[in-house]
Design a protein that fits this description.
The chain is mainly alpha-helical and 106 residues long. It has one domain. Helix content is 40%, strand content 9%. The strands form two sheets. A two-stranded antiparallel sheet has the order 1-2. It has a two-stranded antiparallel sheet with strand order 3-4. Helix 2 runs antiparallel to helix 3. The chain starts with 9 loop residues before the first strand and ends in a 6-residue tail after the last strand. 8% of the residues are buried.
C-alpha cells in the first residue's frame, strides 16, 4: 500500500452552528488549501472568539476544533512546500504507521 499523495488528503472542517453557517461556508478541502480557504478559517475563528464575550454563543469545543482544523491545513501547505523529512533522525512510515524514535533522545 502506498502513502497517499498530498493532493489526495481531505481536510474536513467542524460543523458550524446556525448563526455562523449562515455567514461562513466552510467546506472540506481536497489537497493543498488555497490562501483564500485559509483566510476563511481565520475569519470563522475570529467570529467564534468574538462570540466568547457572549456565553450563550461561545463554544470552547468549536474553538478547539477550528484551531485543529487550521493547524491541519497549514501543515498541508508546509508539506507541499517542504516535502522531505526536515527533522534528522526521525522517520515516519505512513504505510505501516510506524514512527521511529530520533537519535537525539527527544
Amino acid at each position: 500500500m502506498q502513502s497517499p499523495q498530498i493532493s489526495e488528503y481531505v481536510y474536513t472542517p467542524p460543523t458550524l452552528p446556525a448563526h455562523l453557517s449562515n455567514i461562513y461556508d466552510l467546506k472540506p478541502i481536497l489537497g493543498v488549501p488555497t490562501h483564500e480557504k485559509i483566510k476563511m478559517i481565520h475569519a470563522v475563528i475570529g467570529a467564534v472568539e468574538a462570540g466568547s464575550r457572549i456565553p450563550e454563543l461561545y463554544d470552547p469545543d468549536l474553538s478547539l476544533q477550528l484551531s485543529q482544523h487550521l493547524f491541519s491545513v497549514q501543515m498541508a501547505v508546509y508539506r507541499e512546500k517542504f516535502p522531505v523529512n526536515v527533522f534528522p533522525g526521525v522517520s515516519l512510515h505512513m504505510d505501516s504507521y510506524i514512527v521511529e524514535a530520533n537519535t537525539y533522545g527527544w
